[in-house]
Amino acid sequence: MYNGRVVLVGDPGHAVLPTAGTGATLAMESAAVLAEELCRSTPSYRDIQHTLLMWQMRRGPRIARVREEGNLLATAITWTNPLAVFYRNYMAASLPGNYFSDSMMKLLYDPI
């Protein structure tokens, strides 16, 4: 997500599949966390490098989790085996209406 003095935020730095529906949100979060980390640092090159490392360490786990959720959803919605499709549709119909939104809400309210 960074190399030297260049920082990539958003899809260039951590693209997620559109099925996650969180690309722009992750970009804004990353920018906010980067600003927070930069406010804590001094302008020395060494400190900036440490700051960027800390930023990357803070963002990595959340981005990985969102990417994993999006990948799982993409896999499930592209099944073509009739038995797998029946099972997916049956399970989706039997889940409470807010099941997926609750999962995403947990992600939303996790500290960044």
Report what the structure shows.
This protein has 112 residues and is mainly alpha-helical. It has five helices and two strands, in the order ββααααα. The chain has a two-stranded antiparallel sheet with strand order 1-2. The mean pLDDT is 85.
Principal-axis shape equals elongated
Helical content class: over 70%
- Runs in which pLDDT lies below 50 for 5 or more consecutive residues are none
Q: Report the strand count.
A: 2
Largest sheet: 2 strands, antiparallel
**Tally of individual helices:** 5
Lateral arrangement of strands in the main beta sheet? 1-2
Q: Strand content of the residues, in percent?
A: under 5%
How many structural units, i.e. domains? 1
Can you give the mean pLDDT? Answer: 85
Cα Rg: 18 Å
The end-to-end distance, rounded to whole angstroms, is 16 Å
What order do the helices and strands come in, and which of them pair?
Layout: E1 2-3, E2 6-7, H1 11-14, H2 23-40, H3 45-77, H4 82-94, H5 99-109
Helix pairs in contact: 2-3
Short description:
This protein is mainly alpha-helical.
Task: List its salient traits.
112 residues; mainly alpha; two-stranded antiparallel sheet; 5 helices; 2 strands; 4% strand; elongated
